[in-house]
Specification:
mainly alpha; 8 helices
């Protein structure tokens, strides 16, 4: 198989042995198959009433979300990556760091926090990207989990455009994540708002 092309900020794949379909031969084929699989997950996790994060924001369920997103395309869907990537922490730290995030989110529900729901979702989004738990699909996974969190909070989630190709919107998105690396979440929150996210007055704080 010829090497695939990867957009800015994406983690290149070097092992395609996990591809389930043998008809995927090009980047276009892969993008189409993944998009169709992810659409199934979006319908399951973003179009219905979402219970409180206390019931689902945990490692087992997050792995299920990723598996649902890509289980028709990759055999390792829902499994933590074992390889070192250009983005993300060392593989052995993934369970610990993801557990820390889950504990923080659970604490937000029980103890309260002064951050708005949009900033909470932006922080979840950014930390999941930074951890990079899986071999592929981490950006899309992070957006879906953060969007689900907003729905659970009674807020409107963003309707993200297709970000897997190169282009101005992707560059702005990558820059917003880099700003978040430095502790500035405003660019990411503004981008979320640009694509339709909003919060009701009653869901501004936990």
């Amino acid at each position: 198989m010829k090497p695939f092309d990867f957009p800015e900020g994406a983690t290149p794949l070097h092992d395609y042995s996990g591809l389930i379909s043998k008809t995927i031969l090009t980047q276009h084929d892969l993008n189409r198959e993944e998009a169709e699989n992810i659409h199934i997950a979006q319908k399951k996790y973003l179009t219905k009433k979402v219970p409180a994060p206390t019931t689902w924001f945990n490692i087992p369920f997050l792995k299920i979300i990723h598996k649902t997103m890509l289980n028709h395309v990759w055999s390792w869907a829902g499994e933590f990556r074992k390889s070192v990537t250009s983005i993300g922490i060392k593989p052995y730290r993934i369970p610990f760091e993801l557990g820390e995030l889950c504990a923080d989110v659970q604490a937000w529900q029980h103890e309260g926090i002064t951050l708005s729901k949009l900033e909470q979702a932006a922080r979840i989004h950014h930390r999941l990207v930074s951890i990079h738990p899986f071999e592929n699909g981490n950006g899309r996974f992070s957006r879906m989990v953060a969007d689900r969190y907003l729905i659970a909070s009674g807020c409107k989630h963003p309707h993200w455009p297709y970000l897997e190709d190169t282009g101005n919107i992707r560059s702005i998105y990558i820059q917003s994540l880099k700003a978040a690396d430095q502790g500035d979440y405003d660019p990411l929150i503004n981008l979320m708002r640009q694509f339709g996210a909003s919060e009701k007055k009653e869901c501004t704080k936990t």
